[in-house]
Design a protein that fits this description.
This protein is an alpha/beta fold and 326 residues long. The chain has eleven helices and twelve strands. Strands 2-1-3-12-11-4-5-10-8-9 form a ten-stranded mixed β-sheet, with helices on both faces. Helix 3 packs parallel to helix 4 and helix 9 runs antiparallel to helix 10. The structure holds glycylglycylglycine. Glycylglycylglycine (GGG) binds next to helix 4 and strand 12.
Length: 326
């Protein structure tokens, strides 16, 4: 069986880490057909459009999509691409790896981030030159869909339930609806939950990350708090993600375009490669996904490593080392 994979590197280091991920996928005994498409700042400059229609259609029809990074045009690229695959949840694991100098080596978390609404719903206005507004959207249906996914996700021996992170004491209507709906669904499923205000979570996760396991949160909170967790485990070069829908999914490293190092060939490909492992697992190849994860873990522990992790290896060196260990 051939799996059609849309490959959309985007901008900056997306152009370097996405080929690293496809090189690793090509080393597996799985029949992939990669179809590459453009999106992002460069294509906008050239054509006036950050997300060409054919790129959207490709993501909407491929078996899965591998995305790199979005820069200034993130709102015009990654949000519609998540829509193209019908994604309602962004899964962002944040875990420390052996041998990596992490601020909190005991960290092992998974963020389940609402992926369609909140302040990322796109209702932003400039009323006058000095007044702008943003409408925050929270619906019961999106909160319910996320909560049902979370309940299924924790339905294994590995997890005891999940933590709902919100700011319902201030955003009473929006986060109030989010919290109440997620808690109600968890109750229906018989899943244990606790809840923490998002600002308190930011402090507690730094002081004692082990008290958290699966974290269910609104869109912006998930985006920001997972980046914070990246700081605890050794940096953004280590966090993968999956944007999952009912029929398709899109996989991307959590990091952005890193313009300070883009084009130098020194970006850490680990997050993109682990995202590719999530893609492989999503397609049903559990053993191959585990093999990629083990190869990445061994490479992180024994080297070579890129500069963000204290080494001096190139993206290509690290990718070759992962492939050698497969
Ligand atoms: N690969 C992740 C990426 O491109 N991040 C840029 C960004 O701003 N993302 C916003 C989001 O994840 O919602």
């Amino acid at each position: 069986m051939t799996h059609e994979i849309a490959v959309i590197p985007g901008d900056g280091i997306g152009q370097e880490v996405t080929p690293a991920a496809t090189d690793v996928l090509e080393a597996l005994d799985i029949d992939f057909e990669f179809v590459e498409a453009d999106a992002g700042d460069a294509v906008k400059e050239a054509t006036g459009e950050a997300l060409p229609e054919e790129t959207y259609e490709l993501a909407a029809s491929a078996d899965a999509t591998l995305f790199g990074a979005a820069g200034e045009t993130a709102a015009d690229v990654i949000l519609p691409l998540r829509d193209a695959v019908g994604s309602f949840v962004n899964i962002r694991p944040a875990k420390a790896y052996p041998g990596i100098d992490a601020v909190r080596p005991e960290t092992d978390l998974v963020f389940l981030r609402e992926n369609t609404e909140g302040v990322y719903a796109g209702h932003e206005d400039r009323l006058t030159e000095d007044v702008s507004t943003l409408t925050r959207v929270v619906t019961e249906s999106a909160s319910r869909e996320l909560a049902e996914f979370a309940c299924d996700y924790v339905d294994t021996d590995e997890h005891d339930g999940f933590t709902i992170v919100h700011k319902a004491n201030v955003m009473r209507e929006t986060d109030g609806l989010f919290r109440d709906t997620v808690a109600e669904v968890a109750d229906e499923y018989g899943v244990e939950t606790d809840e923490v205000l998002m600002d308190a979570f930011a402090t507690h996760v730094c002081l004692d990350p082990e008290q958290f396991d699966v974290v269910v949160c609104p869109n912006l909170a998930g985006d920001v708090l997972s980046d914070l967790a990246a700081g605890l485990v050794g940096g953004l070069g280590l966090l993968p993600s999956a944007n999952v829908g009912t029929e398709r999914a899109l996989f991307e490293p959590v990091h952005g375009t890193a313009p300070d190092i883009a084009g130098e060939g020194v970006a850490n490909p680990a997050a993109a490669i682990i995202s590719a492992a999530m893609l492989v697992e999503y397609l049903g190849y559990d053993e191959e996904a585990a093999a990629i994860n083990e190869a990445v873990e061994a490479t992180l522990e024994e080297g070579p490593r890129t500069a963000d992790l204290g080494g001096d290896a190139s993206t290509e060196d690290v990718t070759a080392a992962v492939i050698d260990r497969l």
